[in-house]
Amino acid sequence: MWQAFRNGSLYDLRSGRMDADDPHGGHPWGPERSVRGRIVAWLLLDGPPALDGRVSSLKLQGVQITDTLDLAGGTIEPYVELKDCRFEKEVLLPEAHFTTLRLVNCSVPRLEAARVHTEGDLHLARSRFHTGVRLTDAHIGTDLLLNQAVAFRDRTGKSIAGDGMSVGQDLQAEMLETHGELSLRGATVGVSLSLRGSRLSNTHGRRALNAPQLTVERTLYLTPAGVGGNPLQSNGTPARGTRVQRFECVGGLRLDDGRFGDAIDLEAARFTLQHDQELSLRRVQTPELRFTGERPERGVVVLSGARVVNLVDKATSWPLAGQFRVSGFTYENLIPIGAFPLRRRLCWLSDATPEYRPEPYEQLATILRNSGEDADAREVLLAKQRRRRETLPVAAKVWGYMQDWTVAYGYRPGRAAVWMAVLWAVSAVAFSRAHHPPIQPGQGPRWDPALFALDLLLPVIDLGQEHSWRLTDGWQWLAAVLIMLGWILATTVAAGATRLLRRN
């Protein structure tokens, strides 16, 4: 190993038998495959110089490292790559400085790496950590790879603790498997954070992913991954026909106050929540939210205070009534995937607001109007009035029902015109039977019950009939009611015509 370090070559102690070389299997590795952790630390911290024309590096494969590997606070200049290795005890790297560190397909009791600093990558792909990983306040110069890694919880319930961590480029954790809380509070990712195909589970705590105030400069992917890809590379979007593994989260997910430069993508994501657990996106900000996962059967989806530009969603992705909150949720464009009729969208709004609030309805109406769907916008505002009516006292509620039944709160002016025509016809027939002495005998136009009724119904316009004839008894009350209804209906027709002209 000493000579391989000076030569920059691989030191390989594998036996050639797959079952015996599996670092995660139960086959014992004897002293012939063992190296003391103190010797490895000595090599990395104060090793011999490289041979002439070579670059020293530590490349181990199939090696068992006994005792604790302690590099805390050290500066390690050589390149470090350990593959298919087995550690007897924890690896201590707090405040250590590396160029690049790779622990690929290794069995590690625990990785303690708080405030570790790497100029290049930190690769932990396919490794298994039996009592968790600690990367709090770590600084990774380029990429952090956790693809196909497995992490079990520590005594605090966390599988991976990355609070305050900074990653210069991508954080790839595709097909990651965790059994405890994945904590990324206040972490910063310079490009994208990919959890494609990962399975996060925390059956002993409240949250499987706890990442408030997370900042991702590009996109957070909680989407499917193609099975069988290179664990050291991002699979990206799986090609058609590829066998995929979806993102699954057993336990709560918290992204409150996060900032995402491009999008949050939840395509085909599956969330298994308990009744008191949340998929929480409070106050997140992102240009696009792709809410196209499976509908959670339990728990609550919370988007209160979130701000997005494009909301891409499916009708089948939203939970049932009472299981999601959108108070203060703002979006500028709706991009539904599949069938999402307006009737279903209105049910979505009603389900999301157990207590009446006008803002969600007005926001949806504005978006529909801006996209040229004026009729749908009026339907939304009509639904808002109907929802508001349920909060009013009895008298106002009765008046609201009358407005709805007659003129649909003015949002269907055609109905008002029909009512005017019906009232005109009925009142014309009625007035044909009325006693109508002239106000000034011998003057004025000839009596015409149809024109008299129209003169009463149409405000402002004077056809000369109303002021030429005097009605008596109950006909005066009928005339007064007709005048009042005429003002209401004519105003409604005028308002509807004005909206139509303004749109054109």
Protein architecture, described:
- The protein has 504 residues and is of the alpha/beta class.
- Helix content is 26%, strand content 25%.
- It is built from ten helices and 44 strands.
- The strands form six sheets. The chain has a 13-stranded parallel sheet.
- It is rod-shaped and about 130 Å long.
- 41% of the residues are buried.
Topology (SSEs and partners):
Blueprint: H1 2-7, E1 10-12, H2 18-21, E2 34-36, H3 37-46, E3 57-61, E4 64-66, E5 69-70, E6 75-76, E7 79-83, E8 86-87, E9 91-92, E10 97-98, E11 101-104, E12 107-108, E13 111-112, E14 117-118, E15 122-123, E16 128-129, E17 133-134, E18 139-140, E19 144-145, E20 150-152, E21 158-161, E22 166-167, E23 171-172, E24 177-179, E25 181-183, E26 188-189, E27 193-194, E28 199-201, E29 207-210, E30 215-216, E31 219-221, E32 225-226, E33 244-245, E34 248-250, E35 252-254, E36 259-260, E37 263-265, E38 270-272, E39 278-280, E40 285-291, E41 300-302, E42 307-313, E43 324-325, E44 333-336, H4 342-352, H5 358-370, H6 374-389, H7 394-407, H8 413-431, H9 449-457, H10 474-503
Relevant terms:
4 domains; transmembrane helix; Oxidoreductase; 44 strands; 10 helices; eleven-stranded parallel β-sheet; alpha/beta; membrane; 504 residues; 13-stranded parallel β-sheet; transmembrane; 26% helix; rod-shaped
